Amino acid sequence: MSTTPSTADRLRTLFQPVLRGGTPIRLRAWDGSETGPADAPALVIHDRRALRRLLWKPNQLGLARAWVAGEIDVDGDLYELLLRLATVVWNEDGGGDRPGALRLLREAASLGVLGPQPPPPPEEVRMPGRAHTRSRDRRAISHHYDVSNDFYRLILGPSMVYSCAYWRDDESTLDVAQRDKLDLICRKLGLRKGQRLLDVGCGWGSLAIHAAREYGVEVVGVTISREQADLARKRAAEAGLADRVEIRLQDYREVTDGPYDAIASVGMAEHVGPAVYAAYAAILFRLLRPGGRLLNHQIAARTDTTAVDADDPSFINRYVFPDGQLVPLGTTATLIEDAGFEIRDVEALRPHYALTLREWSRNLEAHWDEAVELAGLGRARVWRLYMAACALAFETDRIGVNQILAVRPHEDGRDPLPMTRAWMMP
């Protein structure tokens, strides 16, 4: 005797382009019906509108729009669900064997989801004009950083450091690991009292304050986020370092007061883009004195196949980092060397970023209601998905993060660094 398929069973047909046929997750429909393994995390569809999004975009962007809008959710472990959806989360085309178009249309019609493509949630951004002009870069940075300093403090903790921490052992805390990362950078740069440090993309001033307080250097920090600049100045003044820390609302292309003894670029170069990276590296080379050191801390695509460009229609580029671009480590190293630098050390920190993102995610979950109040429900949902997905990308070696230490050579060939790495150690 035939039985009428449940709403959840019919949903599985519609989700086939996304689920790749045998993906082991549960589906729960708005009427409470379920299908799939009982012990698997459940993708919960609250609203038929989510299905219309997926009919139009059967890939990560369709899923992301439904997630940000609150039309789908997860019951169970978000990380586990994302791992099981990895093929669509990390591939744009949706791929897989799709059921016949007529069958899809019949199921969609029976569920009442046919219709025009719904508009994306208001948190989605499309950047007008040519990528990486100064005006477009300001808009892209403002979209991500000018949200709420208090929102970032909830997630990042008191350190207000928005790049991967440096975990010496399993007993470390996020704040200690971030302090250790700042100190690692200062040691690699060989900072000494009286030197000048340029902090490109200085964020909320944490590295600038640490370098000035612990190493006695004078620091110029530049950012194009107004909220970051305002808070960084306030934090430097509260630390009694306003005479040694200058925070500028300034594009790196506008810095002309070199030479500096050292330059740090931490979590900033991902926003530059490979098309203008050669010019970026040339500017830093020109601003650094001969014998000076550059510390470039940058997320990298693991291979050319995982590279991300500014026109990528992915969740990350539409909701998190507009115009953010990732290239392999080798591409970045070549561009830095082409500018005239000599690379002297490279340290991979991929596992460190996975741990850091897990801690940020815990902070968000622990302060969820306050985060929603500060940034709005849609933005909070963006961050929940973004940090979990990125943690998994680092854990599964899809992306990495590296510190490149480079020097501007002396014209007479003198070696500006000691012969061994002992000076890097604490």
TrEMBL record:
Residues 151-409 form the Polyketide synthase-like methyltransferase domain. Coiled coil: none annotated. The active site is at C390. SUPFAM superfamilies: S-adenosyl-L-methionine-dependent methyltransferases. InterPro entries: CFA/CMAS (IPR050723), CMAS (IPR003333), MeTfrase_dom (IPR020803), SAM-dependent_MTases_sf (IPR029063). CDD domains: AdoMet_MTases. Keywords: Lipid metabolism, Methyltransferase, S-adenosyl-L-methionine, Transferase. Its EC number is 2.1.1.79. Transmembrane segments: none annotated. GO terms for biological process: lipid biosynthetic process; methylation. One of its GO terms (molecular function) is cyclopropane-fatty-acyl-phospholipid synthase activity. It comes from the Bacteria. Belongs to the CFA/CMAS family. This is Cyclopropane-fatty-acyl-phospholipid synthase. It comes from Catenuloplanes atrovinosus.
